[in-house]
Design brief:
Elements (H helix, E strand, L loop, with lengths): L1 E7 L3 H17 L5 E4 L4 H7 L5 H8 L3 E6 L14 H11 L4 E7 L12 H4 L3 E7 L11 E4 L5 E4 L6 H16 L4 E6 L5 H14 L6 E6 H10 L6 E4 L1 H14 L7 E5 L5 E5 L16 H13 L4 H16 L2 E2 L9 E2 L2 H11 L1
Parallel strand pairs: 1-2, 1-3, 3-12, 5-10, 8-9, 8-10, 13-14
Antiparallel strand pairs: 4-5, 4-11, 6-7, 11-12
Helix pairs in contact: 1-10, 1-12, 6-7, 8-9, 10-11, 11-12
The structure holds 3-isopropylmalic acid and magnesium ion.
3-isopropylmalic acid binds next to helix 4.
């Protein structure tokens, strides 16, 4: 099995390095995994003048999965849009049709205090945000800046979803819920937006095939509020690309740190891109203090979904729980009386438990 490792920018290389060590440790335990690195994002611009160099796409095409770090940084903020690091990620999502983005938000008992919410509100939280990742206003055409009939400049984007796009993500949501508490909440803005009224209608129709799963609907503004009021009411939240982007960042903070949250972006063949949901954090890049656990947990998701290695995935997740129980904390989840460690030391501790 082959994994394309695209570390990217900022803290990307430091955190993926730790996940790679974890995968290598499993490999010496009998799992046959080959890994190869390629540049993406700003690193792709530096290496080949393109945030998604051709060689990187080719490597990914020859692989069973992509382990992704993070992209972006101040150095690249002034580039024209096609050259921006984020385009590397968006093009990968589109190229491989990675429409189903799984963003679990789990509160580890040891970290309930690290949340800005009261521990009793978040303790035991286990929520899955399923974000549609290849449609919506992110990719809708036309878009741009133009001069309108009144001679004024105006910016515009297009929100659109086709029925097949909604159907397949709805199926993913109901199937995911079957492995969990069998409750799906579909989030939209059907009171205002045509596209999302259509989303609601199609999700409702797909639900007819899943009588064993409960379906509710919620407007996105209410969902944003309910997530901080009583997040434990949710099991699976399914939503579009734009709302999912926002709600998943919000959900991450329920868990105490965005540095803990992994994600998987899958296509219909379970080929996937696995990345921490946090960004490249240029402010702490190169300092060796970033939390590698979200990336290590992303590697666990990679083992589970793309390599079909459930046992290895559980081993990694258990090791992560273990280091938290041992009291090890990176700066983002620091706690009085607990030992604050750097990126590599956190990786060492996970390896030791593996
Ligand atoms: C995310 C990020 C990306 C997105 C950016 C980096 C393009 O915020 O994965 O949530 O908006 O999808
Ligand atoms: Mg985001």
């Amino acid at each position: 099995m082959k994994i394309a490792v695209l570390a990217g920018d900022g803290i990307g290389p430091e955190i993926t390095e730790q996940a790679v060590r974890v995968l290598k440790a499993l490999a010496t335990d009998g799992l046959r995994i080959e890994m190869e690195q390629a540049p993406v994002g700003g690193a792709g611009v530096d290496a080949a003048g393109d945030p998604l160099p051709e060689g990187t796409v080719r490597l990914a095409e020859q692989s069973d999965a992509i382990l992704f770090g993070a992209v972006g940084g101040p150095k690249y903020d002034t580039l024209a849009r096609p050259q921006r690091p984020e385009q590397g990620l968006l093009r990968l999502r589109k190229h491989f049709d990675l429409f189903a983005n799984l963003r679990p938000a789990i509160v580890y008992e040891e970290l309930a205090h690290a949340s800005t919410l009261k521990p009793e509100v978040v303790a035991g939280l286990d929520l899955l945000i399923l974000r549609e990742l290849t449609g919506d206003i992110y990719f809708g055409q036309p878009r741009g800046v133009r001069v309108n009939e009144a001679g004024e400049r105006e910016g515009f984007d297009t929100m659109r979803y086709t029925e097949p796009e909604i159907r397949r993500i709805a199926h993913s949501a109901f199937l995911a819920a079957r492995k969990r508490a069998r409750r799906v909440c579909s989030v939209d803005k059907a009171n205002v937006l045509e596209t999302t009224q259509f989303w609601r209608d199609v999700v409702t129709d797909v639900h007819k095939e899943y009588g064993d799963v409960e379906l509710t609907h919620m407007y996105v503004d209410n969902a944003a509020m309910q997530l901080v009021r009583n997040p434990k009411q949710f099991d699976v939240i399914v939503t579009g690309n734009m709302f999912g982007d926002i709600l998943s960042d919000e959900a991450s903070m329920l868990t105490g740190s965005i540095g803990m949250l992994p994600s998987a972006s899958l296509n219909a063949k379970n080929f996937g891109l696995y990345e921490p949901i946090h960004g490249s954090a240029p402010d702490i890049a190169g300092k060796g203090v970033a939390n590698p656990l979200a990336t290590i947990l992303s590697a666990a998701m990679l083992l589970r979904y793309s390599l079909n290695q459930e046992e290895a995935a559980l081993r990694v997740e258990k090791a992560v729980r273990g280091v938290l129980a041992q009291g090890l904390r990176t700066a983002d989840i620091a706690e009085p009386g607990k030992r604050t460690v750097g990126t590599r030391e956190m990786g060492d501790a996970v390896l030791a438990l593996l």
